[in-house]
Structure formats: structure tokens, C-alpha cells
Request: fold
Amino acid sequence: MATQATAQRSFSFLQIAITLQTLTIFLQAVSAGLLLTSSYGETLHSVGARVMYGASMLYVLAAVLAWKPGGGSPRPVLHASGFLGLASVQVALGIAHVPAVHLPLGVLMFGLSVLALARR
Reply:
């Protein structure tokens, strides 16, 4: 019974982490548009990048917590770790000002995050 309750809490934490990640990636797309049209867009996009990266790290933590104590599948840990890797590449491309890869990767990340959210 306690294991099921732990798995249920971990599952909901994982759901919250994926939702937060998806939302922050979407807000990055919005701030990218503001980056092109307003003076404060660069600041919003820069802060948003840090929040999105933190959300990706939270996703990894939630996946590990759902896997280890609950005895679930390690697959979410692999997905979350892959996402953190993509987020790292995304941040590096943004800093290097490589929009030809940065923008499509952002779209891919949003799609993958929505897919992960739908599968929960």
C-alpha cells in the first residue's frame, strides 16, 4: 500500500514536471517573438532559457524519483536525460547565435515535450 502511494505521488510529481517543462518551452517561443519586436524581449528570452533549463533538470529529478522508490520503468529517466541533453544543446546554440539550428530544435523540443505530456 505504501509503495502504491509513493508511486502515485511520484507519478503526479512527474506529471507536474513534464507540464512545467512543456509550458516553459512554449513561453520561450513567445519570448522569441518578443525578442524580434520589443526591447525587453531579449531579457525575457534569457531568463526563460534559465527557467526552461531548470524545468528540464526538474523533469530528470522527477523521473528518477518515480523510477527508484516506486520500482517503475527506467524509460522516463532516459527520456528526461535526453531532454536535458537537448536543452543543453539548445542553450549553447542560443548563446552562439545559431538560429538556423536553434529555432528548429526548439520546435522539436516542444513537440517532444507535448508528446511526453500526452503519454502520461
